[in-house]
Amino acid sequence: MSGLRFVRMGFGDEAVEYQEAWDEQRRVHAARFADEISDTVLLLEHPPVYTAGRRTADNERPLDGTPVVDVDRGGKITWHGPGQLVGYPIQKLPRPVDVVAHVRRLEEALILTCAEFGLETTRVEGRSGVWVLGDPVEQRPALGGLALDFDPRLHDEEFDPRMNGPEYAPSNAGQRREDRKIAAIGIRVAKGVTMHGFALNVNPDNKWFDRIIPCGIRDAGVASLANELGRDVTIEEVLPVVERHLRDVLENAEPKPRAIEKTPATVSPSGA
């Protein structure tokens, strides 16, 4: 089957509960595996919800016991909610699936989307998602009146920003001029078909991220299109732009199976 189709599930007052969207993902995944439908991207907003991928550590969850939905995607804990555009691309790819290449394609579509709104974003080596880069460390303002050399995050692996004041909050990373993530990506692949996907912060209340360690990252924060551009940006504005760039990137890609390195056969010495 050819052609990428988009399904706008619900936004604003019709935001889709996480469990409902998860059930729909599984239904669409089964249909795509059976070649009953073409590749499909579900697009929606969720009511406020924390979801935890398989690698989430206990100390990254909300300290106040706020409920968290444990899911079968990769990655760690994040938040979904109003003002965030969520996309679940359900694609059949050559097996064994090259997961990294799939993530890079999603990143590219979102980088192009941000650029169209006038915001330069990029990738950060070793960290998935789309990022707004901060200033070089030596040019950033000191935290809490402390010189950067005494920033506790540099020396304490267990440093918890949630217990050390708003100056360390992920939502304030822009004020600190630190790296900040504007789009998170976490996926799962089953039977050669992808599930889960991306969450692009358009105009959410980023203070929701301050209750957790977003994506398990303690030395960076979160961003949104609206905050970075200094003006109101709506889901309605961003939706067709995201769809266009996803279509351009995903339909023009030529996915290849993941290369599997073969271990050279060991040659036994003569007479062994």
Automatic annotation (TrEMBL):
Limits of the BPL/LPL catalytic domain: 35-254
Binding site for substrate: 73-80, 184-186, 197-199
Pfam family, one: LplA-B_cat
Entries under InterPro entries matching the protein: aa-tRNA-synth_II/BPL/LPL, BPL_LPL_catalytic, Octanoyltransferase, Octanoyltransferase_CS
Region (Disordered): 253-272
Keyword Flavoprotein assigned: no
Reported function: Catalyzes the transfer of endogenously produced octanoic acid from octanoyl-acyl-carrier-protein onto the lipoyl domains of lipoate-dependent enzymes. Lipoyl-ACP can also act as a substrate although octanoyl-ACP is likely to be the physiological substrate.
HAMAP family (UniProt xref): LipB
Additional facts recorded: In the reaction, the free carboxyl group of octanoic acid is attached via an amide linkage to the epsilon-amino group of a specific lysine residue of lipoyl domains of lipoate-dependent enzymes.
Record-given protein name: Octanoyltransferase
Lineage: Bacteria, Bacillati, Actinomycetota, Actinomycetes, Kitasatosporales
Gene symbol of the encoding locus: lipB
